[in-house]
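Lab notebook page, bench 4
Experiment: in silico fold of construct C2
Operator: M.H.
Input chain length: 242 residues
Purpose: comparison with the prior construct
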Amino acid sequence: MAKTVSAIEISADLLQRLHRIHRQINDLQGQIDRGPRKIAAGEAMVQKCRQAVVDAGDTIKRTSLLADQRQKQLAEREDRIETLRGKLNAAASNREYDSFKEQIAADEQANSVLSDEILELLERIDQLELERQQRQTELDQRLGEQQQLIAEVEQQSTSLKHDLATVQAERAEAEALIPAGARAEYNRLVSARGEEALAPVDNETCGGCYQKLTTQFINQIMLNQLVRCPNCNAFLYRRNAG
């Protein structure tokens, strides 16, 4: 059932002013709240870049270790080839000679493949180092941007909090003008719904929920009686009344 605060009159200008104040408060508080979220998002990007640098360094370490292992294998095979050549010269039979010769050929072939792999690994390390430097450059840039963002957010937050305090003071001043008979219900509704506790009337329709209002409601509003929407329960006022 529709609710009307009987015999209570209130200025449409006051309700419109209160609505505007609540919108300003919500907007300012929203801007203030977005500041820490911006900083957190920026920090996440910094951490992502930092991890990319660490990952690039780890990849270089693993590749370098693999290259060292292959170089060690190459050196061991070269030593074995020298040993086999010494045995080749001292072979006691053609069969032994041919056996040593086959082993030398096999090791030389393996070393050729190993040498190519080592070369590829060393070239890969050079490329990885370039990529690591690029990741480091990106990190340094992101860190600079993050510091700038923090400074900007802190500066904006100080200004926004000052503006919010000013608007809140205006709200207290305006709310002091609310008729005593309606103040408790207004406070309850504002606490629950914020700026949606008030709504303008647009073309005989509630500006909050778009409920079509009856002629009786419109007449009461025109007489500056305190009226609430039968659908969304918002306090209604004539827009741009003067």
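Observations: The first helix runs from residue 12 to 89. Strands lie at 4-9, 198-202, 205-206, 225-227, 235-238.
Next step: discuss at group meeting.
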